[in-house]
Amino acid sequence: MTGQTIFFKNKPRVIAGYSIVGPKEAAGPLDPYFHKRLRKDDFGQKSYEKAECKLHMSAISGAIIAAGLAPKDVDVNIGGDLLNQIITSSFSARELDIPFVGMYSACSTFGQALIVGAALIDGGYISRAACSTSSHFSTAERQYRYPLELGTQMTPTSQWTVTGAGCTLLGKEGGNVCVESATVGKVVDFGVSDANNMGAAMAPAAAKTVLQHLKDTGRDVSYYDYIVTGDLGVYGSRLFLELLQSDGVNAAEKHKDCGEMIFDKKQRCPQGGSGAGCSSVVFNSYFLHQMRAGSVKRLLLVPTGALLSKLSSLQGETIPGIANAVSFAVEDVC
């Protein structure tokens, strides 16, 4: 490990990826790339929490089936979500009969899961890991902000929590996309206290992690085809680029944000999407497709998270941010 960055000697492979989204996400610009789309966001369940559990479980099962494997072939499921005590992930795990490691790092949980899964494989401890995250608009709203029945209007800086789940199945071999390295981020508090402006809270952590990754690896932004943040949204992405620029790094032409990409302006989500499922859904659909096709050779995925709770917001706490970076490459440049 150099600085905060792990260099994987055996370079774990992406065996399969799977994404499942709600109807609003399916109406967005990335629809052709999703593996499964829901007609209704309750997924035939009695509560939205149960619907999210089914989403999460479907993403894991979908990735395993796409790889031509069975649950018994997977050594561990590393998963997380946004609900109290990560009940979505743990309740899903009880149905799958796969050893489970629960993760929480808010909307950056997908990056954390990938880092742990890749490290376990690279170290020779396991052969395969299913790395999964999920979120649901209707569960996250009442978890972090207001009851749905209140009908609260979104502020100009608010993002729409993505209803969706994604799973990346990592392994020792198989697939033409590898995990090169990963940078573990630090918690950064920029003093933002508005729970409806999470992009501003997360952007400093994302910038700090990217700068650290470039320093540790000795790379320039030109090394990557894309530097992809998790869910900074429109405003947060602008701030992220400004913070990098203040340190002499111009990443504007390389940057994409999953939250910006998943919705379009017609969907009344001016700041874009957010949620633990945001980066996992977009990576396992659009970006993994582009890498397998060879149009993207190197990608730095930087899932971002706002480490708040409803209680901390009510007590006037500011919102710490976190970002973890994972570097992917296709086989011929691994």
| Total of domains | 2
Percent of residues in beta strands: 15-25%
The class by helix and strand makeup works out as: alpha/beta
Helical content band:
25-40%
How many beta strands in the DSSP annotation?
A: 17
Q: Count the helices. How many?
A: 10
* CATH level-1 class of the largest domain: Alpha Beta
What's the arrangement of strands in the largest beta sheet?
A: 1-9-17-14-11-12
CATH architecture of the largest domain: 3-Layer(aba) Sandwich
CATH fold naming of the largest domain: Peroxisomal Thiolase, Chain A, domain 1
| Weakly predicted, low-confidence segments | none
Helix-strand topology string: EEHEHEHEHEHEEEEHEHEHEHEEHEE
Question: How would the global form be characterised?
Answer: globular
**Could you give a short account of the major beta sheet?**
6 strands, mixed
CATH superfamily of the largest domain: Stage V sporulation protein AD
